[in-house]
């Protein structure tokens, strides 16, 4: 029983979320086609959610995790349904080189042995995310912590 509990705990950590996945919507918009409008929508989302605490598996303003925040942002701002977990989100869209990032691209980080983190790129090396320590916030890819943890980027 104890081994099963540990396996479940590790699985939850590695996905940054425990909720079931959702599929991409059929009528998906190209979020990054207008970088200025995309960035404006993301900044507005930050204003509305700034400081909302991190909660593993959370999907509301009472608490939200990183992949849940990505799902909420894409759904409410762009009408796009994304998968629920970081493990699923890392496989959508196309790979983007860090030097080619545009507003709306997803940025992924390896924050531990099996833990992953995701945020949404804003531009100027800034990204929006649900931080475990400070809740929903904007951080810099140039921050020493995030710079060493950066893993990959995707354009949904």
TrEMBL record:
What PROSITE patterns has UniProt attached to this entry?
A: NLPC_P60, PROKAR_LIPOPROTEIN
Q: Which residues form the signal peptide?
A: 1-19
Entry-linked InterPro entries: Murein_DD/LD_carboxypeptidase, NLP_P60_dom, Papain-like_cys_pep_sf
Keyword Membrane in annotation: yes
Q: What is its main location?
A: membrane
Record keywords: Hydrolase, Lipoprotein, Membrane, Palmitate, Protease, Signal, Thiol protease
Name of the protein in question? C40 family peptidase
Q: Which organism is it from?
A: Shewanella schlegeliana
